[in-house]
C-alpha cells in the first residue's frame, strides 16, 4: 500500500514569525496522523521551520533548487545548501516556475538528478494548461512531462520520486478537477511510468493531486484508487484548515 503524502506549498507567503506560529499551531493537530505531513516553505523560513518542526512528524521542504552544487549563479540555492540545514523535500518544476522563471523539462530533469545526488526527495510537478485541456491533450502533455522529468533516473530513484499532478487551470482558481478526472489523469501518469520502468516501480510511485484542494474536497479526492495525497497551496497557510486536509481520513 502506498502511503499518502500531504504537502503544503506556501509559495511566496509567510514571514519567519508567521511560519513559527503556523507550525506551532499545526503540530498538535496532526501529531497522530498516519499520513506524511510536509511543508514546503520559502528559503527565508527554512531554518525557522526546521527548528520549530524538530521532534514532530512535520517534514520540511524547499520550493526549488539549482542543479549545480555551487558556483557563479547569483540568487540561487543548491542541493548541498538545502541538505546542510536538514531539508528533506524539494518541489521541482512547479508550473509557476515553468511559466514565470523559464523552467523547462530539461532543467526539471537536471534538478531531480541533483536532488537525488544530495539525498533530497523531489516532488515533481506536471500538469496541463486550460488550452491544452480543451484541446483534449491532457494525457499527452502530462505523460510527456513525466517521461522527460524522469529520463535517465534509476528504477530506485523513480520509485522514490513524488509526482504532483497539478492541472494549471485548477491552481488558485477554486476550480478543482473532479476526483474522477484527477484519478484518471494520475492513472495515465502511472501507466506511462509502468511502460518505461515496469509495473512494480509504477505501483510504488506516490502521485499527488494539486489544485484548489481544501478540507471540503480532500476526502473525495484522496480516497480514489490512484491519488496518493495532495500538494496544497492556499489552504496550507492556515494550520486548522491544513490539519483538516491532513486528517481527511479521521
Ligand atoms: P492552490 O491549492 O492554491 O490551488 O495551489 C496549488 C498549488 O499550486 C500547489 O503547489
Considering the chains and any ligands shown, give keywords for the structure:
250 residues; alpha/beta; TIM Barrel; binds 1,3-dihydroxyacetonephosphate
Can you list the strand order of the major beta sheet?
1-2-3-4-5-6-7-8
What is the number of independent domains? Answer: 1
Q: Which small-molecule species are bound to the chains here?
A: 1,3-dihydroxyacetonephosphate
Strand element count: 8
The geometry reads as: globular
The CATH superfamily turns out to be Aldolase class I
Radius of gyration: 17 Å
Count, helices: 12
| CATH class placement | Alpha Beta
Using the coordinates shown, work out and report the CATH topology.
TIM Barrel
Write up what this structure looks like.
By secondary structure, this protein is an alpha/beta fold. The chain has one domain: TIM Barrel (Alpha-Beta Barrel), CATH 3.20.20. The protein contains twelve helices and eight strands. The chain has an eight-stranded parallel beta barrel with strand order 1-2-3-4-5-6-7-8, surrounded by six helices. It is globular and about 45 Å long. 45% of the residues are buried. The model has no long low-confidence stretch (mean pLDDT 98). 1,3-dihydroxyacetonephosphate binds at residues 9, 94, 166, 171-172, 210-213, 231-235.
Blueprint (SSEs and pairs):
Elements: E1 5-9, H1 16-30, E2 36-40, H2 43-53, E3 58-62, H3 79-85, E4 89-92, H4 95-100, H5 105-117, E5 121-126, H6 130-134, H7 138-150, H8 155-159, E6 162-165, H9 179-197, H10 199-204, E7 206-210, H11 218-222, E8 229-232, H12 239-246
Parallel strand pairs: 1-2, 1-8, 2-3, 3-4, 4-5, 5-6, 6-7, 7-8
Amino acid at each position: 500500500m502506498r502511503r499518502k503524502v500531504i504537502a503544503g506549498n506556501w509559495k511566496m507567503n509567510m514571514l519567519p514569525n508567521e511560519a513559527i506560529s503556523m507550525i506551532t499551531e499545526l503540530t498538535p493537530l496532526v501529531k497522530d496522523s498516519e499520513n506524511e505531513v510536509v511543508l514546503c516553505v520559502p528559503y527565508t523560513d527554512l531554518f525557522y521551520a526546521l527548528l520549530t518542526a524538530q521532534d514532530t512528524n512535520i517534514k520540511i521542504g524547499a520550493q526549488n533548487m539549482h542543479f549545480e552544487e555551487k558556483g557563479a549563479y547569483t540568487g540561487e540555492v543548491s542541493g548541498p545548501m538545502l541538505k546542510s540545514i536538514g531539508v528533506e523535500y524539494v518541489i521541482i518544476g512547479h508550473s509557476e516556475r515553468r511559466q514565470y522563471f523559464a523552467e523547462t523539462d530539461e532543467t526539471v530533469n537536471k534538478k531531480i538528478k541533483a536532488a537525488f545526488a544530495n539525498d533530497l526527495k523531489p516532488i515533481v510537478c506536471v500538469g496541463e494548461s486550460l488550452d491544452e485541456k480543451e484541446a483534449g491533450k491532457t494525457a499527452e502533455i502530462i505523460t510527456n512531462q513525466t517521461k522527460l522529468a524522469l529520463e535517465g533516473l534509476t528504477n530506485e530513484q523513480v520509485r522514490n520520486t513524488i509526482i504532483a499532478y497539478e492541472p494549471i487551470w485548477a491552481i488558485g482558481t477554486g476550480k478543482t478537477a473532479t476526483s474522477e478526472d484527477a484519478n484518471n489523469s494520475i492513472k495515465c501518469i502511472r501507466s506511462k511510468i509502468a511502460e518505461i520502468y515496469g509495473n512494480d516501480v509504477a505501483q510504488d510511485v506516490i502521485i499527488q493531486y494539486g489544485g484548489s484542494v481544501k478540507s471540503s474536497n480532500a476526502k473525495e479526492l484522496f480516497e480514489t484508487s490512484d491519488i496518493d495525497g495532495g500538494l496544497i497551496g492556499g489552504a496550507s497557510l492556515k494550520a486548522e484548515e491544513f490539519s483538516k486536509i491532513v486528517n481527511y481520513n479521521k
